[in-house]
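The authors assume throughout that readers already know how a fold can be written as discrete tokens. Each protein is reduced to its one-letter sequence and a matching series of backbone shape codes. I therefore recommend that a typical entry be quoted early in the introduction. For illustration, here is how one protein appears when written out as sequence plus structure tokens:
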Amino acid sequence: YVPAGSEAPVPATVPALILAGTTDPQSTPDRAAWARRFPAGREVVVPGGGHGVSTTGCIPALIADFVARGDVRGLDVACAERRVAPRFELG
């Protein structure tokens, strides 16, 4: 037996760094949903970024800073808010 309403998401109280790219088809357009589910979190939207922005530009350093701090407060995300040039690969 599963009580009614038990399938509703429960907000996470831990810090969370949410990464999204503006060209990622997997990202939800409902940005407010993240804030409701992760009240101690911060979403960083990378302009021009696709799926997997964690390896783009300054994002690896931003992730490392978040892990070292254990908190999203005070994170400098300015570098992530600049447009990302698409990768060019041969082969």
Remarks:
- The mean pLDDT is 83.
- The chain has two helices and two strands.
- The helical segments are 31-37, 59-69.
